[in-house]
User: Fold this.
Amino acid sequence: MSLIVQKYGGSSVATPEKIKSVARRIIATKEEGNRVVVVVSAMGDTTDSLIELANRVSSNPPEREVDQLISTGEQISVAVMAMAINDMGHEAISMTGAQAGFETDSSHTKAKIVKIKPGKIVEELKKGKIVIVAGFQGIDVYENVTTLGRGGSDTTAVALAAVLKADACEIYTDVDGVYTADPRIVTNARKIDEIEYEEMLEMASLGARVMQSRSIEFASKYGVRIHVRSSFKQDEGTFIVKEAKSMMEKVVIRGVTVDKEQAKVTILHVPDRPGIAATIFKALAGNNINLHMILQNVSEEGYTDVSFTVMKADLKKARATTESILDEIGARSVTIDDDIAQVSVVGTGMKSHSGIAADMFGTLAREKVNIEMISTSEIKISCVVKKEDADRAARSLHATFVEVEDKREAND
Amino acid sequence: MSLIVQKYGGSSVATPEKIKSVARRIIATKEEGNRVVVVVSAMGDTTDSLIELANRVSSNPPEREVDQLISTGEQISVAVMAMAINDMGHEAISMTGAQAGFETDSSHTKAKIVKIKPGKIVEELKKGKIVIVAGFQGIDVYENVTTLGRGGSDTTAVALAAVLKADACEIYTDVDGVYTADPRIVTNARKIDEIEYEEMLEMASLGARVMQSRSIEFASKYGVRIHVRSSFKQDEGTFIVKEAKSMMEKVVIRGVTVDKEQAKVTILHVPDRPGIAATIFKALAGNNINLHMILQNVSEEGYTDVSFTVMKADLKKARATTESILDEIGARSVTIDDDIAQVSVVGTGMKSHSGIAADMFGTLAREKVNIEMISTSEIKISCVVKKEDADRAARSLHATFVEVEDKREAND
Assistant:
């Protein structure tokens, strides 16, 4: 008898009708002879509504109370899911994070799981029940309710799969799986059957929204094989694994991503002296601004320009911070460009293949796409381009790296 | 330094604005130099909305899951209340029933408090914090969330006041206190300064809606002095106490109540044999129908009529039950009268005063109110009358027993 952990996101349980539909899917899994543990997020936009309520009584609500408040969202959805399943003639029991044994540290709103005591879950599974666990939450040693932060329900599911040694960890979502590119941009994009943790991590941080990085890191650490699939279809989705079995040698690039949520900040005429960069990036880090890409021009006559990209949400803060240190570093001025996008190719196959960068730049040159910044890692190459060029760039890169490979594979 | 337990009902915390207003009131109490523990109900009609949600996925939701679901209502309101107080510059911490140490039995949706471990509350009070406790809820020994049933938040407050040996237990509500009669019916009704537990219990069960019987029983058992008062005014309300100090000997009748929520069922032509009544009332009890008043006519030629009153909500069930046993008991038919009301006078002073019944019947006779049924206890007399006569009956009884006493007292 297999043990399957399933996770359903907020959009899959947004209404009573959707909850009933998910309940039927859970029951089908149970009736196939599996033991089933289900992690559920808060219904639809419940969490946002609760945060709005908090903001109406407080300009700066204490994080402990925020957790006490928003954790009710998942408590509601697990209770209602258990009711729906029971109403269909199967036994289900709901559990809060505390009841499910999730102990976390005390970093409210972004707690880390310290340990899981799955005794109650195991006990109820033994009784033949379907166990419905509230995602995203736990308690600390003082019995304060905590939440795990963004993507927390995915982490709950992956952690449960690890500790229960589940045979499968299925993440249900409103898309079919992970795609070689965003199908809204690249019409030839296709679903990926298998993707490696490393690749998924890069793609998640480069704009692919299917899963949060943190849960993938967790899965990678504990070797949990994740199956991302659609709540609304029966087809298999994408497996996220340590090492993709299929065509290991052949697939060089797993996917192409486009991120339009970034902006570029340039500090002009910066004296090219040791310590200047440190001053700039320390000031930015001190204001909790995450940088994505950094570029320093070749120095001319002792001066250089320093550019970096940040999330658009941080742009105002980044501008103010850099302007406040202009005098200190002896630079001239700050310019902003939010009309950019970052286009990347990702694939662990790059580790053993040279020439990918050259192919990428060649493809972009043919498309007359100007490259403003470049950043590379062992398994990805990212280019900052003008926003208007981004979709065209992604389509041409997808044709060069994914579609050509697909054809070659088909011909083998 | 006094310790004050306050309880605010759902209508007092129905909106963010009302929550802020209550927060200011709590802070004022704290600033007067008191330690403050506050019990809060769910905001407005949250509980009803949650039950509606349950009904949309299940025709008969398991009670454990109902508790898991509806307990979120109070968890939301305590978190938001703590946020509001913190935003006003005072330290507050919210607690669920579990965190506050409420252990109950496992009778979901109507759990009884087994024990309270107030350690965490005491600890936070020592740190100078205002403690906000979720009313109406606890956990059983298996860590299942339980709820205490109707009036549960009042019970939470009274129980906390008992276990913390509080100096005051203030129940805030949308009325000024307990009245000698419903002011909407009897314009001369006045607020009662002090009322005894026994009297309050009778008045609650006879239609006065201020507090639920169960919390008063609890207060009586542990000698908790309750102060029922308005959330919106500063005036003192009504103290519910073991023995009213003032004018003990003089006040015979504390108040007059009218209950229009009952209906009368009459079984006609019942053979007057031993065991027949037992058959009837066993059948009704078996269907969870609570009877309020029972009347058996004088027997004529071996037959009698049996009448009883039930809550209107139970009327359909009561009719079906009695009709189903007509053949068994050999009775003729069942008639229903839902055009009735029960008018009562209540007062512990009756114990040492005779002649109240005579005065009551005399008053009603002068008003040409026909009495259909009579029921008495040591501290109340109730009459069932036609519904159209009920308000007039209440006004005349209030004039006879309350207003006359008030004048006598004023003349002393």
Summary: Chain B is about 35% helix and 25% strand. Chain B touches chain A through 40 residues (CB under 8 Å). The CA atoms of residues 23 and 85 of chain B lie 5 Å apart. The mean pLDDT of chain B is 92.
